[in-house]
């Protein structure tokens, strides 16, 4: 009795309290009254990888790895081998794979369905919640089909679809570090390698990087070079994959190892290929190869291939046609994309998961090479779990015991009610952290010229103009405001009011102009004559945000800016981003960056619109200064430089 | 008790509990979209300027020059044969390289992706 009671009490606390309780050993023996709770807390975790399915129940400790393929062998032509049925097959030479995944994304659902059918027969989900993984930025189309299959065909009651890196992250923070640790997860799998930064407990989408290099590419590359150098093995994906796993390793110093590979060395290994009669799996033959062995079996002599194949991860340019940066560079790049204050912590928490990390020496190599790309003041630690392939399933298991887990799932009746858009929204919550504004003055390299300019030292005997630091003020003028016209210019008058009156009121000093950022325009007047007027001095400054781009700035189109009242005519462009276009001929916009004048292309001037070249649009704060003709009685948006 | 009540509430009254969707065919045959199609449809959608999706998380190109390896042995290759454009590491390799017929050299070049005349 007492045991049961305590068991129940535990379950209640388990729901109320935070994470660490979920890992506490349960008091009391599971009696009949606690059976309901037991059922609830069990969940099926399915990590649906491109090469293998990793599956396990949250209750027990086993994680099963099944091949995610349908295979056809040459010896038994009529039979299909689904997942681990391949163990029944005796002759594995020339094994043909039917893969549901294409570049890591499920594209052949008919194949995938068969494999899943087989898997769920072995591991029935019953009424438990199912956690299933998908690649990062999985396409909506694929997600919809996954929903359909799980809810409608497998009749799953509760589903949680997530990225495997999320589960990895969860496992890491619960077992190793505290909550909200920022870290970076390198998931190097069969189809690709993802580098995913987690900032403050959430995925930071801006920093995610995908390298199109995975175990499949490495195996194919090994197949290629072996076929040309020694033996035709293009058909033997299965065998070569085993060869790769058995012999390849990540060199710590690639150049040095390559030099040793030139001469006689320890790197050379003789790999005995399986013939599927006497040898079922290939193995590394230590020592000299005698003539008897050479006669009876096929032997591959693996030399520099052992290191040059995993090296592709670090230098993808080894394979022609791939122009991506290496893994270490990508890690550093990804860290650099994240907000500054989290970077140190991220460098301190680099997690390696996925099949490729099983290469011996992988962790050490990533450590040394990433170190080179990171700032020297960053402390750096790389963590590789004992079983990097199964780590995400472990994470899924512990996540299913999280008190928050229930609320994050989608139930079947919810899916039926709201459809797949609902699930899509629920499972794809990417939260981005706001980047703090970059500090300009402190990080800029010190220059005496700038320093003197600031001080007012007149080294060139010129009057150095001090830049006006006051920001632009934007306001809208309406036709009724127009009252006065002095013959030549449009005059704009406005009054200021304190935006947030400070507690202690200090009247502004009489000589200095008021701080405009603190002020709000409350009254505005504009004087425009009844007849059209050419504004020939005090040209109006209009910011890019005030103009409406009528086409989305894509590669194909160039952005067009149109004045808001369509009858406001632009006669002449005075400047774009502070640079003056040439007056004669087409409107060439020069860029004055770096002291050189470079033509950035020509802007086209229409009646009431300016077409800006694409490359000018790169910067967001485009300032366009032009001379307009004002028409009568319209709302005009003007930004006036104060 | 509580959870059951909320379930009942969330179910609209007009829905019959014994309703079975007649539109759902038992064995439907579907043509799945290939990955290329999926990517191209995704690209053509009108995304906001700074939206992040599949194509925008590609790894950046490397700043380091590609290293050169011998086509025959895979060792670092400082030399290139001007006739066949094959790379080789030492003189022994060069002597074997001279004996190779045209189709084999072409195959080596194709393996390296350097078979085009332009490149």
Automatic annotation (TrEMBL), chain A:
<dbReference type="Pfam" id="PF00022">
    <property type="entry name" value="Actin"/>
</dbReference>
<feature type="region of interest" description="Disordered">
    <location>
        <begin position="1"/>
        <end position="39"/>
    </location>
</feature>
<dbReference type="InterPro" id="IPR043129">
    <property type="entry name" value="ATPase_NBD"/>
</dbReference>
<comment type="similarity">
    <text>Belongs to the actin family.</text>
</comment>
<dbReference type="InterPro" id="IPR004000">
    <property type="entry name" value="Actin"/>
</dbReference>
<feature type="compositionally biased region" description="Basic and acidic residues">
    <location>
        <begin position="1"/>
        <end position="13"/>
    </location>
</feature>
<protein>
    <submittedName>
        <fullName>Actin-related protein 6</fullName>
    </submittedName>
</protein>
<feature type="compositionally biased region" description="Basic residues">
    <location>
        <begin position="14"/>
        <end position="26"/>
    </location>
</feature>
TrEMBL record, chain B:
<dbReference type="Pfam" id="PF08265">
    <property type="entry name" value="YL1_C"/>
</dbReference>
<keyword id="KW-0804">Transcription</keyword>
<dbReference type="InterPro" id="IPR029525">
    <property type="entry name" value="INO80C/Ies6"/>
</dbReference>
<feature type="domain" description="Vps72/YL1 C-terminal">
    <location>
        <begin position="68"/>
        <end position="97"/>
    </location>
</feature>
<protein>
    <submittedName>
        <fullName>INO80 complex subunit C</fullName>
    </submittedName>
</protein>
<keyword id="KW-0539">Nucleus</keyword>
<dbReference type="InterPro" id="IPR013272">
    <property type="entry name" value="Vps72/YL1_C"/>
</dbReference>
<keyword id="KW-0805">Transcription regulation</keyword>
């Amino acid at each position: 009795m007492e045991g049961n009671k305590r068991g129940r009490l535990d379950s209640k606390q388990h729901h109320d309290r935070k994470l660490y309780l979920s890992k506490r050993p349960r008091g009391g023996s599971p009696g009949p009254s606690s059976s309901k709770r037991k059922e609830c807390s069990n969940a099926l975790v399915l990590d649906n990888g491109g090469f293998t399915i990793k599956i396990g129940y949250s209750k027990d400790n086993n994680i099963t790895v099944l091949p995610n393929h349908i295979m056809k062998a040459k010896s038994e032509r009529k039979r299909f081998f689904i997942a681990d049925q391949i163990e029944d097959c005796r002759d594995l030479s020339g094994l043909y794979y039917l893969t549901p995944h294409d570049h890591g994304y499920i594209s052949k659902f008919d194949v995938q369905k068969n494999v899943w059918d087989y898997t769920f027969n072995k591991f029935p989900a019953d009424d438990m919640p199912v956690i299933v993984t998908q690649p990062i930025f999985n396409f909506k189309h694929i997600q919809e089909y996954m929903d359909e299959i799980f809810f409608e065909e497998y009749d799953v009651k509760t589903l949680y679809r997530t990225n495997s890196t999320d589960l990895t992250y969860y496992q890491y923070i619960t077992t190793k570090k505290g909550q909200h640790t920022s870290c970076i997860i390198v998931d190097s799998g069969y189809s690709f390698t993802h580098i995913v930064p987690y900032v403050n407990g959430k995925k930071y989408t801006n920093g995610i990087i995908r390298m199109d290099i995975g175990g499949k590419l490495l195996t194919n590359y090994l197949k290629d070079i072996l076929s040309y150098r020694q033996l035709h093995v293009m058909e033997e994906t299965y065998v070569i994959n085993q060869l790769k796993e058995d012999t390849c390793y990540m060199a710590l110093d690639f150049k040095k190892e390559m030099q040793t590979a030139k001469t006689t060395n320890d790197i050379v290994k003789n790999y005995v290929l399986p013939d599927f009669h006497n040898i079922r799996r290939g193995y590394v033959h230590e020592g000299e190869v005698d003539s008897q062995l050479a006669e009876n079996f096929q032997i591959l002599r693996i030399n520099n291939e052992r290191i040059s194949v995993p090296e592709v991860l670090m230098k993808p340019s080894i394979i022609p046609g791939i122009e991506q940066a290496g893994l270490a560079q990508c890690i550093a790049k990804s860290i650099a994309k994240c907000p500054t204050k989290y970077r140190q912590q991220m460098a301190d928490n680099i997690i390696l998961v996925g099949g490729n990390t099983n290469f011996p020496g992988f962790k050490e190599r990533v450590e040394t090479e990433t170190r080179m790309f990171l700032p020297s003041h960053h402390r750096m630690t790389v963590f590789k779990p004992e079983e990097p392939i199964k780590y995400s399933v472990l994470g899924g298991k512990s996540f299913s015991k999280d008190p928050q887990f229930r609320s994050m799932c989608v139930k079947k009746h919810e899916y039926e009610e709201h459809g797949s858009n609902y699930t899509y929204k629920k499972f794809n919550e990417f939260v981005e952290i706001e980047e703090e504004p970059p500090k300009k003055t402190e990080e800029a390299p010190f220059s005496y010229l700038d320093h003197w300019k600031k001080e007012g030292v007149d080294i060139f005997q010129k009057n150095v103009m001090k830049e006006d630091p006051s920001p632009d003020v934007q306001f809208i003028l309406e036709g009724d405001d127009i009252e006065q016209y002095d013959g030549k210019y449009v005059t704009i008058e406005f009054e200021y009011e304190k935006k947030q009156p400070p507690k202690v009121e200090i009247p502004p000093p009489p000589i200095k102009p008021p701080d405009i950022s603190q002020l709000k325009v409350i009254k505005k007047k504009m004087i425009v004559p009844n007849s059209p007027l050419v504004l020939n001095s005090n040209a109006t400054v209009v910011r890019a945000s005030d103009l409406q781009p009528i086409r989305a700035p894509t590669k194909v189109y160039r952005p067009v800016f149109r004045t808001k009242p369509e009858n406001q005519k632009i006669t002449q462009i005075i400047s774009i981003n502070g640079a003056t276009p040439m007056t004669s001929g087409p409107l060439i916009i020069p860029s004055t960056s770096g002291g050189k004048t470079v033509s950035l292309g020509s802007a086209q001037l229409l009646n009431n619109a300016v077409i800006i070249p694409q490359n000018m649009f790169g910067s967001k704060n485009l300032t366009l200064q032009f001379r307009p003709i004002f028409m009568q009685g319209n709302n005009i948006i003007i930004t006036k430089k104060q | 008790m509580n959870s059951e009540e909320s379930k009942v509430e969330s179910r609209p009254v007009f829905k019959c509990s014994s309703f079975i969707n007649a539109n759902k065919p038992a064995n439907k045959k579907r043509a799945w979209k290939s990955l290329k199609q999926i990517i191209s449809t995704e690209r053509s959608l009108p995304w906001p300027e700074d939206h992040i999706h599949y194509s925008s998380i590609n790894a950046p190109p490397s700043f380091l020059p590609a290293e050169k390896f011998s086509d025959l042995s895979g060792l670092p290759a400082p030399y290139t044969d001007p006739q066949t454009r094959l790379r080789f590491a030492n003189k022994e390799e060069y002597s074997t390289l001279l004996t190779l017929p045209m189709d084999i050299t072409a195959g080596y070049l194709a393996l390296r992706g350097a078979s085009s005349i332009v490149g």
